[in-house]
Every structure is written in C-alpha cells, then in structure tokens.
C-alpha cells in the first residue's frame, strides 16, 4: 500500500511515540499479569455460569476453549469474573425476553455475578421492550447504552439504574484492511472533548466502554473522563441493521431489510472472512457474526492493553464468554 | 416536502435548482484541514467536497441567487478536540457567508455548534443513527432543528418519530446509494477501488461454520450458499444495480419514491437524495425523478397512482418487484399482501 493511500496519510509526521509504541515489540502478556482490574464476561444467552467461578485452571480451560488463544486464556484465568454482561449491543433481535432476563438475574446471583444489561441502537419498538427489561433490574444495576435515546430514557424513567456508554457510541476508525499505522487516520476514543463530557454528565453516564484501536498505544487510554472498560480480544468493525445471516430466515422483498426478523441463526453460525482480491489481505483475522463484522486484535495490541492494565488505566476488561 | 440534493462542484447548483431541488448540501475540505488532519477526516467523503472556503462562499451565494438553501456537511463520525475547534472556525466563516445549516453527527460537535452559533440551524446527520423519538428529542434539546433519519428505518418508525417530536423536522432518504452497514456503526474507510473500495463491496470469501465447532451439514451448507447468492443479488441492487442507469440516464438503485405518499402521511419534512460523489448528470436525473413524483403527490394524486407513477419512471418493474432496490421494501410487501396491481401505468396515467 503506497501511492493509492496517499490521501489518508497525515501530512505532518504522526507523534513518533504513538507509532513507535504500536510497532515496537511490547512485552508479552505473560510478563504483565492482570491485577487490579475487574473482569466481565459478556454473553448473549448466559448459561453454565458456574464455570466462571471455578478455579484458575478451570477458567483457563474455559477461556482457551472460548477464545482459542492460549496466552490470553492464561492471562485472564487468575481473574475471577465479577460481572455478567447480558444481551447484545449489536442487534435488537438479541434482547432477552423478560423471563430470560429474570432467570439470568437469579442464576447470576447464585454465581456471585452482578448483571449488566447490554442494549443496542434502538428502534421505537426496542425502546418499549427495554422499559420492561429495565423494570426487572435491581437499583444500581448497570445498563450499557449504545444509543443516546436509550441513555435519555434511562435517565428520565429509570434513574436508579446506572448508564454506561457502550462501544458503539465510541466511534473510532477500525478498518482491518489498513495494515500500516501511518495510513490509519487518528483513531481515538472521542470521549475526551469537553462537549462530549458535558453530554455524558447530562445523561448521568458513569462509565464508558471502548474497543481497542487496531494500533493501540499508551495514548489510546488517555483522557477518558470516567472509569474505562475495554473489550477484548475482538474489535467490532461494522454492524448493520440489515443482517446477512437473517436472510436464512425469510424470503421475498424484505429478506435483507431493516425490519428485523430471524430465528437467531447467528447464535449458532459465524463465518471466517478473507479477502480474495489480488494484492490485498487483511492485517487482522476478520469474522462475520450476524449483522456484525469483528476483527481479532494482534498479540502486540493485547500486550499494549496489558501494559495499560498494569498502569491502572483500565477499570474493567470485557471478554466474550461465547465463541464467536 | 422539500427535495434535498447533493453537490460537489459549483456548476451543479443552478441546474439542480432549476430541476426542482429545494435545498442542497455540500462538504468542504480546506487545504489547512487536509494539511493538519488528512483529507479523509473532514466528512467521510474525500472525493466529494468543495476545495476551499472561498468556493463554499461562492456556493452559498450561488444557491441563494437560485432560490435554494445550502447546508454544509461536517458529519464525520467523530472529531478530536482540535478538529472540533477547526470545524467551529469553519462554521463561523460559514455563518458570515450566510450559510443556512450545518449537518453534523458527532455529539461533541453538535453541542459545540449549538453553544457557539445558537442561530445556526443544525441538522443531525444520518450518520448519527438516530431511530427513536427519545434520541430525536435529545437532539432537539441540544439545539437541532432537523433530524436526517438513517437509511435503515421503516416507514412506521419514521412516522412515529415525526409525530413524537413535532418541533423537529424529519428528513428521510429517497434516492441513491445504499450502505450495507449503518453509517454510524461502520468504522471503516471507503478505500480506493484498487484496494477494496467500501468494505461492504470488497471481495470477501465467507467460510461459514457452527460457532461450537460442529461441521456444517450438507443441507445447511446448501442453504448458506443460496443465502450468499441472494445476498450478492441484494448487494447489486443496493449499489445502484451495478451503478447502471436507464437509457435516458435515470439511475437505478436504492429508491423510496413509492414511499412518498407514506412520507406525506407520516409528517416527513424533507426527502434526501444521496450521492455527493456521483456525476452531475446522475444528480440532475435524480432531482427530476423525485420532483416528478412529489409533484404528483402534492397535486393530490391518489397514493396508488403515485406509486404506480414512481414504478413506471424506469422500465424496471422486475427490479422493483424484488424489493431489493427499495429503501422501504415494506411498501412492496404491503402491496403484495393487499394484492394491488401497482405497476399498471394506465391506472396512474403515467408516461
């Protein structure tokens, strides 16, 4: 990639520290034990929660089987999860039914896990459904909002619940096709501006979640005004309301339409994706699950995250407890 | 309802106004912005912008002389503090030029604009992905005067939002260009074509699998293959039927013309034609198409006749019938359910 990407190149040299941090070899995960950070397990449909409270070897086995990354599994295993993030930030069809959420709340309590409800970009119908779910949550429970309208509704109608700004609200460039940090325009979390801080305060948002940028550096964690949760080991690249996988469930004009309908096929199916154009390849492994494209962070990126954890800059790690 | 059309060069303004556009919108990438931040960061359309503030001033004057308004697009998904400060400086200059509205997405920029230029109209970009009344109300409280709905919304949802927040104008997509992923939730760039283009058009091979590692059955593999083929057909429609036109130059592709009667009932204020980076002829043909259907609606033509007129604009009933070319395919579904013949040109008196 050279001339054709010239329009992306930042004319003034990027801060050398940022690029250096992402291109130099960071210490390995094993050299940076995860301490002083909470861990949350994210599940669309929680089950077998007792596995999360098991001992370190059992958790290592769980993470290894779930994430397919031995080094990461070993790094996470000493941390006993304290929170369960349920539901989906990506799809309105994956909201739990009230009965499902009630059951999850009971099971999580037995497992010693606090429940945080993840919510997606919301249609009017989703907003109405959320009211019923919010009513089931205990005072102080967290709700991850990925829609400013949901945040306002939470503030106005459910003030005892705690809003967390989700990663969809944290917009940053994460194009897995850009394999060179020099061609990646500045990718920051965007929560640092005084105007955005005022909006967060106005809506009573007390925590924020982000994906790692694809070329993370120490700077990636700077300037966050609130306790920070970081997702790993996948970043979401793009999501649609239209769902390719849901096309399995319907025919006709609305097969790939916005009006959602499916049988939750994405809970069982995923696809590894790879570019086939001559001369192109993705710098990161990419996956397509339902309506969302993910990419897996590099070992170097995860090590940068581990450094940030060791420096006390990350309050919570959020890790999928279901294989993507 | 007003027709809102894009420009990227000055000589498009008079022609689009004469063709029936009520409002225009454009981006600008001043040299200083490109030097500081790179050309791709101003508003996600590196190839569709005016090159300077001088050109922007000329565009505002030209638009007003031709009786139309001109909005300025500053709708990157997110700006840094330095970029917001630079964008505010652009907005100040734009106000001095007599500019009409700024289209923005980043909530930080929205707040900054509302504080710094309280008299300036703010339109919330479709990139903000606002599709509920509470979100619309929040943007209204922050100072927005109009909400541009995302592409992926239903007619019922649009009408519900419009009814719930009556002091916020609602704009909806009516023609051209279809993202696959939601604009506000797509964290990628439109790369040059040789490097893949938009990620949704890039050549990805899919290796489907069960998430629990079980092998796919032959039957499921066949269903997935059929679904992939249907998706590729849909994608072809979503991207303007391979970016083709009729012999007369009318563009195929994402279209909401049949939905204009529903928009009218639903309190929609403005109809957005997308495609800033497209050629001038495409924009001109697009405005003429929308104007023709909107005039029929405004003249009191019955909804079924308006819809038939819309379908008869292009000799492509087979395209329309798929629903894959529709922004609002529920129109096709409802028509099928009601078994109403919508393609009868005689009933509509269409040409």
TrEMBL record, chain B:
Taxonomy, superkingdom: Bacteria
InterPro entries from the UniProt entry: Peptidase_U32, RNA/ubiquinone_mod_enzymes
Listed name of the protein: Peptidase U32
PANTHER family found in the cross-reference section: 23S RRNA 5-HYDROXYCYTIDINE C2501 SYNTHASE, PEPTIDASE U32 FAMILY
Pfam families from the UniProt entry: Peptidase_U32 (PF01136)
Organism for this UniProt entry: Thauera aminoaromatica S2
């Amino acid at each position: 990639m050279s001339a054709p990407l010239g329009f992306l190149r930042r004319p003034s040299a990027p801060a050398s520290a940022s690029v250096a941090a992402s291109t130099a070899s960071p210490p390995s995960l094993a050299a940076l034990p995860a301490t002083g950070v909470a861990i949350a397990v994210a599940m669309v449909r929680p089950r077998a929660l007792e596995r999360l409270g098991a001992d370190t070897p059992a958790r290592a086995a769980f993470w290894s089987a779930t994430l397919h990354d031995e080094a990461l599994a070993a790094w996470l295993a000493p941390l006993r999860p304290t929170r369960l993030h349920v539901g989906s930030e990506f799809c309105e069809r994956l909201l739990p039914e009230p009965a499902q959420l009630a059951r999850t709340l009971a099971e999580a309590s037995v497992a010693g896990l606090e429940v945080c409800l993840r919510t997606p970009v919301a249609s009017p119908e989703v907003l109405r459904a959320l009211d019923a779910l919010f009513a089931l949550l205990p005072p102080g429970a967290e709700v991850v909002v990925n829609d400013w309208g949901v945040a306002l509704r939470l503030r106005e109608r459910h003030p005892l619940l705690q809003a967390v700004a989700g990663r969809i609200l944290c917009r940053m460039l994460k194009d897995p096709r850009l394999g060179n940090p020099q061609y990646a325009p500045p990718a920051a979390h965007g929560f640092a501006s005084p105007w955005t801080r005022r909006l967060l305060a106005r809506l009573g948002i007390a925590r924020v979640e982000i994906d790692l940028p694809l070329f993370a550096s120490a700077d990636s964690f700077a300037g966050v005004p609130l306790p920070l949760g970081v997702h790993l080991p996948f970043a979401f690249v793009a999501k649609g309301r239209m769902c390719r996988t849901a096309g399995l469930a319907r025919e006709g004009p609305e097969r790939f339409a916005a009006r959602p309908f499916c049988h939750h096929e994405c809970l069982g199916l995923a696809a590894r994706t790879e570019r086939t154009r001559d001369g192109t390849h993705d710098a990161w492994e990419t996956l397509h699950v339902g309506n969302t494209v993910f990419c897996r962070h590099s070992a170097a990126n995860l090590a940068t995250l581990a450094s940030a954890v060791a420096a006390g800059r990350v309050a919570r790690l959020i890790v999928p407890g279901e294989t993507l | 309802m007003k027709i809102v059309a894009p420009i990227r060069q000055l000589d498009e303004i008079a022609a689009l106004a004469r063709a029936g556009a009520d409002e225009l919108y454009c981006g600008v990438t001043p040299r200083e912005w490109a030097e500081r931040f790179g050309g791709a960061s101003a508003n996600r359309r590196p190839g569709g912008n005016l090159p300077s503030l001088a050109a922007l001033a000329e565009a505002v004057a030209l638009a007003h002389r031709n009786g139309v308004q001109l909005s300025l697009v500053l709708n990157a998904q997110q700006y840094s503090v330095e970029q917001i400060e630079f964008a505010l400086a652009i907005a100040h200059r734009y106000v001095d030029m007599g500019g009409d509205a700024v289209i923005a997405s980043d909530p930080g920029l929205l707040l900054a604009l509302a504080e710094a230029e309280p008299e300036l109209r703010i339109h919330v970009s479709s990139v903000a992905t606002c599709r509920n009344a509470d979100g619309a109300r929040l943007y209204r409280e922050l100072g927005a005067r109009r909400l541009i709905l995302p592409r992926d919304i239903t007619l019922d949802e649009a009408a519900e939002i419009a009814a719930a927040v009556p002091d916020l104008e609602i704009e909806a997509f009516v023609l051209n260009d279809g993202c696959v992923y939601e604009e506000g939730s797509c964290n990628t760039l439109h790369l040059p074509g040789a490097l893949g283009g938009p990620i949704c058009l890039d050549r990805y091979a899919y290796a489907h699998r069960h998430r629990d590692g079980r092998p796919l059955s032959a039957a499921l593999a066949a269903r997935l293959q059929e679904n992939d083929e249907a998706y590729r057909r849909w994608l072809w429609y979503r991207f303007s039927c391979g970016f083709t036109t009729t012999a007369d130059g009318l563009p195929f592709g994402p279209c909401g013309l049949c939905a204009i009667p529903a928009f009218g009932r639903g309190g929609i204020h403005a109809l957005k034609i997308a495609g800033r980076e497209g050629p001038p002829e495409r924009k001109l043909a697009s405005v003429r198409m929308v104007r023709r259907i909107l005039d029929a609606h405004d003249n009191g033509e019955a909804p079924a006749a308006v819809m038939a007129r819309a379908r008869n604009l292009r000799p492509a009933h087979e395209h329309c019938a798929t629903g894959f070319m529709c922004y609002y395919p529920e129109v096709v579904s409802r028509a099928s359910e009601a078994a109403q013949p919508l393609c009868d040109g005689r009933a509509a008196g269409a040409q």
